[in-house]
């Protein structure tokens, strides 16, 4: 099936946002390698196996987003609905290529994902953030603020949850309930 365009009715890009021409879609199988490339190039995200990104594009495209500039991927979100808590979608990774940052693209992707999932009953967004990730913290705070939602923070994963202390702690952000903007 052809990828469906996703766009938010709640946050239209303004004239100053040079990403206004960037199209948002559900990823397709062919996007797997580019999602992996963007995660690697972020130099911040955990870089999972190429296989996992391609698998994600096959099985979780409805809860994920890819942004394309003139057809070329320049940002993505991978997410899923929590099996044990179906009112909640989890945003696993968000990345925007360096030359597309600071122009509202991550917010557009978050809004489009929420606008797609909230009408289906998934009214809470969760994500984990490392305490030193200023950009990620600001991105989720911006989303919660503009959606008029609470953003609750609580510790989730500590050093003991990762091998050899090789990972920073992760704080759970829980945002919602998100109202249906449509
Ligand atoms: C986090 C990231 C996705 C943000 O992408 P972006 O397209 O530049 O973000 P936006 O332009 O949509 O900005 C969203 C909000 O975050 C703020 N923000 C973005 N980058 C910021 C930074 N480096 N410092 C402070 N605030 C920042 C913006 O000001 C905006 O807030 P506002 O609405 O209050 O003005 C991007 O920096 C990135 O890919 N980082 C590496 C990967 C990563 O850390 N991902 C998140 C963890 S999963």
Can you give a write-up of this model?
With 182 residues, the protein is α+β, with helices and mostly antiparallel strands. Strands 1-2-3-4-5-7-6 form a seven-stranded mixed beta sheet. It has one domain (20-176): Gcn5-related N-acetyltransferase (GNAT) (Aminopeptidase, 3-Layer(aba) Sandwich). 35% of the residues are buried. The model is unreliable at 12-16 (pLDDT under 50). The protein has helices at 32-42, 50-59, 105-117, 134-147, and strands spanning 23-25, 65-69, 72-81, 88-96, 124-129, 150-157, 170-176. It is globular and about 40 Å long. The protein contains four helices and seven strands.
Q: Can you tell me the number of structural domains? A: 1
> What is the H/E order?
EHHEEEHEHEE
User: Uncertain segments of ≥5 residues (pLDDT<50)?
Assistant: 12-16
Distance between the termini: 24 Å
Strand count, sense and closure of the main sheet? 7 strands, mixed
Number of helices: 4
Shape: globular
Which structural category fits the helices and strands? alpha+beta
Radius of gyration (CA) equals: 16 Å
* CATH architecture verdict: 3-Layer(aba) Sandwich
Q: Strand order within the widest sheet?
A: 1-2-3-4-5-7-6
């Amino acid at each position: 099936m052809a990828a469906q365009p996703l766009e938010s009715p709640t946050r239209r890009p303004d004239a100053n946002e040079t990403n206004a021409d960037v199209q948002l879609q559900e990823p397709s199988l062919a996007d797997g390698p580019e999602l992996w490339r963007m995660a690697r190039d972020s130099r911040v995200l955990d870089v999972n196996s190429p296989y996992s990104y391609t698998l994600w594009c096959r099985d979780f495209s409805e809860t994920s987003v890819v942004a394309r500039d003139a057809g070329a991927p320049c940002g993505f979100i991978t997410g899923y609905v929590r099996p044990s808590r179906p009112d909640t979608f989890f945003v696993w990774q968000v990345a925007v290529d360096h030359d597309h940052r600071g122009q509202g693209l991550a917010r557009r992707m978050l809004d489009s994902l929420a606008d797609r999932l909230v009408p289906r009953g998934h009214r809470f967004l969760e994500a984990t953030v490392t305490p030193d990730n200023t950009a990620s913290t600001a991105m989720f705070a911006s989303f919660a603020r503009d959606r008029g939602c609470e953003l609750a923070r609580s510790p989730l994963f500590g050093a003991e949850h990762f091998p050899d202390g090789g990972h920073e702690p992760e704080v759970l952000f829980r945002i919602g309930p998100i109202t249906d903007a449509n």
